[in-house]
Every structure is written in C-alpha cells, then in structure tokens.
Amino acid sequence: MLYLQQVAVAYAGHTVVKDISLSLAQGQIGCLVGPSGCGKTTLLRAIAGFEPVAEGCISLQQQPVSNATVQLAPEQRHVGMVFQDFALFPHLSVADNISFGLLTASKATKAAKVKQLLQLVGLPDLGQRYIHQLSGGQQQRVALARALAPEPKVLLLDEPFSSLDTELREGLAREIRQILQQLHITAVMVTHDQNEAFAMADMIGVMEHGLLQQWATPYELYHKPHNRFVADFIGRGVLLPGTMLDSQQVQTSLGLFRQRYVSSAKPGDKVDVLIRPDDIVHDDSSGITAQVTDKAFRGSHIMYQLKLQSGEQVQCLALSHHNHAIGEQIGIRLDLDHLVLFPRS
Amino acid sequence: MKRSLRDIWRWSVLLPALVLALPVLVIFASVFNPQPDVWQHLRQTVLADYVINSLLLAGGTGLGALLLGTASAWIISQYQFAGRRVLEWLLLLPLAMPAYIIAYTYTGMLDFAGPVQTALRAQFDWRYGDYWFPQIRSLSGAIIMLSLVLYPYVYMLARSAFREQSASLFEASRTLGLTPRQHFWKVALPLARPAILTGTALAMMEAFADYGTVQYFGVTTFTTGIFRTWFGMGNQVAAAQLAAMLTGFVLLLLVLERWSRRKIRYYHQGQRSNAAPRRNISVGRQMLLLLLCLLPVLFGFVIPAVQLVSWALSNYQQTLTPQFGQLVWNSFSLAAMAAVISVLLALLFAYGKRLRPDVLVQAPVRVAALGYAVPGTVIAIGVMLPLAYLDGRIDLLAEQWFGIRTGLIFSGTLFALLLAYSVRFLAVSLHSVEAGLERIKPSMDNAARSLGYTPLQVLQKVHVPLLRSSVLAALLLVFVDVLKELPATLILRPFNFNTLAVRTYELASDERLADAALPALAIVLVSLLPVILLARSVDSSLKGKL
Q: In CATH, what class is A237-343?
C-alpha cells in the first residue's frame, strides 16, 4: 500500500532524512516518533509531496509518486492530510470546509458526503457553524472529516493533537483510530508523544538524526528495542552495567541473568542490561534491598527511584499501597521476561 | 452617577471631544434648514453630475487601487525574486505624492504642448488635429491619477493579510486536490478580502474627499460643487447640505470598512504556524515580476518626481526667493502647531480611555475620531459656519458694550485652521498614541508601584520612555498630513496667508506648472519621511507577529 524504499530528503544540499525504508499494508496505521528535529515531519511532507526526495522511492498502491525523477504534485497524489494547526478555512462553514476537496462532485453528493462524515466524527449538527465557533477538539474532528472526504489513498497526520489539552488527546487518539479502522484507511501520523503513538499505531517508527532507528509494533519497540536510543526514547528504564559470563549469562549487581538465545558475546564482555520500572518488583521478602531516593505518586502506582547497594540507580513501579518513605530500604526482586543487552563501548 | 459627573477626567475628555465633533454635527444639522430655491436650481443643473461623477470617481479609484494593490501585494508576498526586498517598500512611495501634484505633473507632460505630444508630432510629422491623444484632464484621467497614489493603502493591508496566511492552509488546499491557482481564488483571496476591502474603502474615502485633482481637471464633483455653492452662489447652508450628502456617502463606506475589519479577527484565529516560504521561480519569471511591480512605482512616483525636479531645476533662480522661504515657514510652523495640538489631544483622549474605560469617555472619543473619514472641504465648512456665527455675536456684543469692533477673531485667524486640522487628523495621532499606550500593560504600572514608585514617577520612568517613539511618529504623521492638506486650508486660511500646498495649487491653476514645481517638490520630499517610517514599522510589526 504505502511503500518507502531508501528514501532520502535534502534541503539545499543538506540531507535531513536518509535511507528510510518502511511499508504499511492497507488499513494499517503507522506512527513516526522521535525528538524534535529528527526529520519525522520532513518525511511526512515528502510522502504528501511537499518535499522532493533526493534518493529512493515512495510508492502509493504500487504507483511511484516520488523518486529522483518523478515528483507528483501534492494535488495529484490523493493523500489526505491533517495539519498541526488544523489549517481549516476560516471563511467557510464546517460543511463547506469538509466538501472543499470534492471539486467535481454534484451538490447532492457533497451534501450526502458531508452529512455522513459529520456523523462519523460525531458532530452531526454543526455543519452550518463557522470555524471560530468550534472548540479545539471539534476543529480537530472537522479537520479529519475534511481530509477524509475525497477518500484519500493514505491519510497523513502531522502532530494532530499537539494543540489540544492533554486530557483530550488520548481519548481523541483512540476515537480517531476507531474511525480509521472502520474505514479501513491507511494512515501515517507524526508525533513526539509516545503515548499517542501507542494509542494509535499498528506500527511505530522511531527516528533520530534523520535515520529510522526501528520500525516495529509497539510491543516489540518497548520490549525489544534495537539500540540504546530506542530503549531510552520509548518508555522509562535504566541501563544496568553487567559482565558476560558466557554467551548466554550476564552478571549484574542485581544477580545473574540468562538470555534464551545464544549471542556472539564472549566471556568478560562488558554489557548494559535494560531494566524497565515494571521489571523490578517490590518484594519485602527479597534478599536484595535498595534505598528509596525519590518517589512520585501516580495514583494507582508509585514510581520509586532506588539506589542499589552497588550505587546504581534503578526505577521501580510499585502498587500504590506499598508506601515507603524516602531513605527507607526496601526489598526488590528482578522479574525479567527476556534480556535486552547492549554491548558497552 | 453624580460622582462620575464630578470626575475631572470625564469632563476633560468630554468637552474637547464635543468641540471636535461639532463641525460634523453642524453639517448634519444644516439639513433642518431647507433651501428650496437653491436646491431646485441644483437639481435642475448640476446635482446629477455631482452624484454621478463623485460615485464614478470613488468607484473607479477603488477598483484601480484594488487591482494594483492586490496584484502587487500577492507578488511581493508569495514569490522570491531579485529586488523584492527593495520593491517591498518602493511600492509605498506613491503615498508621498499628493494627488493634486501628480495630476498637474502629468498634465504638464501629456497635454498638447507637453514633451510627449511634442515628441510624437516631431517624430511622425503630425500637426494639431492629425491624431488622437487621450485627454488627461477628464474623469478617467482623475481616476488613473488617484489610483496611482492611493493603491498603497490596499497594498499594505493586503500584503500583511497574505503573509499572515499560514503555510499549512496552502498545503491543505494542495492535499485536497487544488492547484496553486485554484488556491489563490478559493482560499487566499477570500481570506484576504476583509483587508483588501478595508484598503479599498480607505482609497475611496480619499477619492470622495479629493478637491485639487478634480478642480484642476474640471470634473464637477461634490467637493467642487460645495466650493461653487459657497463661494459662487454664496449660499452657505446649501453648501453645508451638499457636504452632508457627501458625508453620507463616506459614512456608508466607513460602515463597510468597519464591517470588513470585524471579520478580520475571526480570520486570524487558530492559525499559529509560520507564513509560507516565498516560492522560487525561474530567472525569466523573476524579471517579469520585477518589471510588473516596478510599473506602479514608476508611474506613481518616479516619473512625476523626476519631472518636478527638472522643472524646479529649470527655474529655481526665479522661484527660490524670500517669498518661497516665507511659504516654507508658514507651512512648517502651521503643520508643527497642528501636530503638537493633535498629539496633545490624542494623549489626553488615550489616557482618558485608559483610566476611565467606560462608555461616557469611550463614545465621545470615538465620535471625535471619525473626522478622518470626513472630507476636508466638509470639515472646513463645518468649522466656518459656527465660528463665523460666534464671531458675529462677539463683534455685536463688543460694539454694544464697549463700542469696539472685534472682527473675525476665530473664523478669520489660524484658530479655525488649527481646529479643522485637529478634527481631520485626530484619528491619525490617536491611533499611533493608543498603539503605544497599549504596549504599556496595566501590570507594568502595578509592578512599578509595588516597587515603590509614585504615580508621577511611574509616568516619568515607565510611560515617557515607552511612549516616546509613538508620540514622535504621531507628530510626524500629522505634520505631513497637514502639509499636504489642500481644500480645508484653501477655505480657512487667513487673508493673505499662503502655504506650500495652496501656492502649488494656485500656480498650477494659473498654468504656471514649472513655477509650481518647487513648492510641490518640497511637499513631496517632506512626505517621504513618514513613508520611510511606515516601511520600517510595517516590516517590524510583521516580524513581531510571526
């Protein structure tokens, strides 16, 4: 459906994005996340046709739309786009905004489409309003309806929730996911907020310095990060130093761990073990103890910052009623499902 | 209520505001003193001409300014080409060229004895009557002249409106299947419409108010009709009634302008992203756009300015006399006095509004600031009527009680002129001063007070330094406007008191075009100052927004 092959984008000879390959099947939702300046928006704009690609190829439904020679104009690509500032037309009513992209349709077709889309985004009665009469969340839905109206091949969303209140974001993200799945539409969203990405995406790409660090499902991304950047960027966690005893076992200050597969590591190799806060279980009966250095109350859970006897810091997500004061020693136990190791350089 | 009436601020705002509103009120009051004979005569002879010509002039000028201003604003705001930065402010230059000056300059160039026709005759060996040449002294000539100097109103506002449209709007249009051309017609233009209409309304108001151009071209409009009824027929009430009619047309425009502005606010909501980068185009198209944008500058400023300079150089020995020095002194001192008065009034009103934000203070100030929309001719008559009446009463009383004649102590002196200028240009100074005062947030006052400053010290340490630049700008703007002003000065000036504008007009009317060049050039040169100021402030205010 959407297929990117070794895509590179350059501004004035300076490469911003390089060697990006990814693909989405019909109906899949992909998210690009990464720190600001990582090139994720540039990549999205290249898919939309606002930036030419310097190398590689972008195809939509097996048809190349961007490569070093072909550069289809945005209006000929049939992509829908939802913009960060929504870019709704303030001189048009909600209905006219939604039917704006239906250039050749008859009046009746337009009206039917507008009605259907307003129903879909949950604003059935607001067609005659003007944009300034809508709340931020309503504007967001109109922007989505407008982008969907011409039945685009792929929907692109550029930080669509960044101008909304935090409370609105996740709910709206889930709602939009449902709408997109209902229409079986392929979509790519750019965000810097991984929670939005988790709420929306089938596939997530983590970008840094113009490179795609990993393209994977949310589960894989969290539990099997390819490299230190992805491990650090997605979720919380610390890297605990360890030493390989053989190709499968690693010794750390929290004990000996064993990975299931045989790696190329040699005994004595220095490695870092990724420890997520949910990997550390608070267990009063455990022999290993750590000192609470800081804590953050999260309602159902408490996030503890712990100092191990060896001096390393780890985080522990404990149930809320396990309330300990700062400075206290608490028992912990490591509950690792699988090991994530990075060789230390 | 009693307390509020004793409040000194209210009275110190209300009284001057009433005085400034008086001339316009007098004009409208004149309607209640019917003059059936004169109106019978007017209706049978010239009234239809006045109405039709004034409407055609304003409509034609509006259309011309709209086309020139919108086209140049679109090109400047959307495309990157060599020379764009310079052109961006060069396009403002025609603002410095008063319409009556450009009109007589082009007449000198294009009439039968002028260089253009002479050259044509020499080239093709034509004689008088052999060929057709467009008559510059006509209604269409006046429309072209006015359009050439008034389009910058549209240009300025439209350029900001186009620049403020966020890049994502353009991209949204593209993803929805529109070509760039379709985007212009369906999104960019409708979004800029309020700004464009505002600029067009301003240009049309100026066209309604114009006296010098139409008088010189022999086109009968309301303004020339008011002069003729006042001085030719000697009927001052009928003149005031004509003025009321003209003001009616202008107020309609004002309503249109206000209505357009109201929508601007909505059109800017929720658009936070940056303006679109200017589009890169081929060298050939760059040259074409450069040329297109140069045309209005060339015809609206450069050509007439060069002609003025060459005339002034050709006979400066005869024109650069002590009399000319007297003219400059008269004009400059009068303009300086008017500027100071206008700015003092503006400061009074602006502080009144800030300290007493209630309707009793706001409303009279608003009414007083309407004067900028009212043609100078109308204001002059509105000032003249009550002052002449007042002078008559004073003279009568003085003779009865003290046996002396006081003469025209208000209407025959600079007082009348200064009052008329204050009415006409209060809005200019008020706008500038209020903009400056708005930057001084009330929280700044509170901060200074909490740090131990007395109100007077706050004024001295916070307000004065922060207001200085806007007060200076207001002084300059009013100074130049007064310097250029023609019809009110013509009517209200004391006997034998001449200014640069009046002298330019008189010499041009006597067909002494070359002699008129020196005073005209002086006006144009001084008028350049606020244009430069404007070019810089428009730039920086845009930068502040983005």
A: mainly beta
